[in-house]
Every structure is written in C-alpha cells, then in structure tokens.
Amino acid sequence: MGEYAAIEKEAKLFTELCVHNDAIDPNLFDEFGVKRGLRDKDGNGVLAGITNISRIDAFEMRDGVKTPCDGKLWYRGYNVYDLIRGLRGKRYGFEEVAYLLLLGDLPNEQQLHEFTDCLTKCRALPSNFVRTLS
C-alpha cells in the first residue's frame, strides 16, 4: 500500500472539485486579449490573466466616472476583510481559506473536518527526520 493510499479517495474528489471550479471559458482569453503563457507572440511578458479565484477592485464608478479607490481584494467572491473577521477565534483559519481557494466555496463543518483530516495525514514527518536535522 502506498504512502498516500489512505487519502486517495479524498485526493481524487478534491482534484475533481479543483478542476471543475477553476475552469475558464476559453473564449474569454480571446475576448479580453489575455495570453495563455508567460509571454505574448512578441516575447513580451504577460501583464494580465483571468482567474475566478481572486479579484482586485482598484476603481469605483462615481457619477459615471471611473475613480481610483483604496482597493478591495476578493477570494472566490468573499471580501478578504470579511473572511478575516469570520475566522477570528477559530482554530482552522488556514484550512478554511485553503479549502475556499482550492475548492471554490467555504466548507461546512463536515467538509472542513474531512479536509483537515486529509491534510493532517499528509503532514507526517519521516521517522529519521530528527536525526537528519542533528
């Protein structure tokens, strides 16, 4: 049995969710002139990308005029400030946000437990780890 056989089922499910929730309509690349690699046809670096994971609002429309604002960062449709406020006092803030970023939505209690359990199984250190550091 392989080292990660215990989490194979969960890993497959998480992989499928990641692929499903991160799919980008290929037509959007042409519509917005976004390059798919690190360079454009002339070898210049890519300046923008399309993602459904995060969004930055640097401008607001005020009286029909595009105006710079303080900026807002969004992860999967959630304002980062709201995420931080919601995680105060909770033990698994990292795991909740990782789940959100990877799988597309905040986990319910059972999903968080399963995800955290899966991550915990992957954290085991090799038995000779302490000797290696000595």
Summarize it:
It holds the Pfam family Citrate_synt. With 134 residues, this protein is an alpha+beta fold.
Protein described:
With 134 residues, this protein is of the alpha+beta class. It has one domain. Helix content is 43%, strand content 16%. It has six helices and three strands. The chain has helices at residues 8-21, 26-32, 80-87, 93-103, 109-121, 129-133, and strands at 54-62, 65-75, 78-79. The chain has a three-stranded antiparallel beta sheet with strand order 1-2-3. The longest helix has 14 residues, at 8-21. The two termini are 30 Å apart. The mean pLDDT is 81.
Q: C-alpha Rg, in Å?
A: 20 Å
Q: What is the H-and-E element order? A: HHEEEHHHH
Count of domain modules? 1
Shape: extended
Summarize the topology.
Layout: H1 8-21, H2 26-32, E1 54-62, E2 65-75, E3 78-79, H3 80-87, H4 93-103, H5 109-121, H6 129-133
Question: What attributes characterize this protein structure?
Answer:
extended; 6 helices; 134 residues; 16% strand; alpha+beta; 3-stranded antiparallel beta sheet
